[in-house]
Amino acid sequence: MDPVSIEIVLPAPERWLNDLEGRSEPDSSEEVEALDAILADVDRLQQEGCFGETAVSIRDFILQSVPMRPIQSFYNAYGYRVGHSGLDLKPGIRLKIERAYFRAAEAGEEEYDPGHFLGLSTAYFDVELAGDNLTRFQQVGNIRYSPASLAHKVEEGRRDLVLNTLPQEPHYRLFFYTYLVPQKHKRSAVIIGASNASQLDKLDHQLRAMPDKSCENGASAVACFEFDGFVTLSSQIRVELNGKTKFLEWGAQVKDVLTKNWEAETLKSLRIQRRYMNTYRDLRFDPRDSNVLSLGLVGGDRLTWSKRVPVSTPPSTPQ
């Protein structure tokens, strides 16, 4: 074997998928947990220079090669799976921050009573790749207020712009608190960054185990930014649909972007291209298998399709 090469052997696709689907929680799969441990070791070895001078992330190479069902392809691109709350932030993702404002509650009133609603602010940030394969957050436009007069009355939304000043790190992850934090907790999400992904895995585990603790308590985090208050942080992906660039909500599937009122049998052609490492490749699939319509889309995907034109039969002329 070439001394600078590495060979990784995974279970046969059928065995791997059966193991994942044969348990109530994929997170408890021994195979997936073992893979997490291997990925942590790979990160450490790459940090120590064991794979030579390469800009390629061995971890990403492994993740993109793991067999998954079409609907679970988010694991390949972002390391996301059921049971975990982390989404690796990669180029092609856009973050949308929506913050709601309410007038101050008086004695005996609910803090976020709908009747006290004042308006919304919205800010966008693109996840970009800077020099030396570092990740940065680039603000897109200015904060938008609805109504516009709200801009002169509130200041809280400007705190979100600090995201633009986070240090550039090789790895960033979005951690969702949605289903973990007690109802009265004011934190909704957090963005964490580190020099390698295994550090994020460790902090991810700590946050899931102790959701009421601040991410600033995790010594392994190089960067940490928490979103407090009545705020929603969502992610979008940039895809190309029939030659036009569009941002979709994260989690969108192929069937969500096809022409309205489509039927599988009306599709004349469907081509899907995905970036594998640094090269675009055609996804090969059986056009008769409708499972491809459940494929989870990831940032950078290119889709082109066309529909069959129905042939109308002219009415017969009475003889």
Characterise the protein shown here.
By secondary structure, the chain is α+β, with helices and mostly antiparallel strands. Among the domains are: 1-67; 88-235, no CATH class. The chain is built from six helices and twelve strands. It has helices at residues 13-21, 30-47, 58-65, 74-78, 197-209, 254-257, and strands spanning 86-88, 93-102, 117-129, 135-146, 171-176, 187-194, 223-228, 231-241, 244-249, 267-276, 279-282, 302-307. Strands 2, 3, 4, 8, 9, 10, 11 and 12 form an eight-stranded mixed sheet that branches. Helix 2 crosses helix 5. The protein is globular. The model is unreliable at 24-28 and 179-185 (pLDDT under 50).
Task: Name some characteristics of this structure.
12 strands, 6 helices, about 325 residues, four-stranded antiparallel beta sheet, alpha+beta
Taken as a percent bin, the fraction of beta residues is 25-35%
Q: Provide the residue-averaged pLDDT.
A: 78
Over all CA atoms, what is the radius of gyration?
23 Å
Element string (H = helix, E = strand): HHHHEEEEEEHEEEHEEE
Number of strands: 12
The structural class is alpha+beta
Stretches where pLDDT is under 50 for at least 5 consecutive residues are 24-28, 179-185
State the shape. globular
Q: What's the N-to-C terminus distance?
A: 80 Å
Could you describe the largest sheet, including whether it forms a barrel?
A: 8 strands, mixed
Helix content: 10-25%
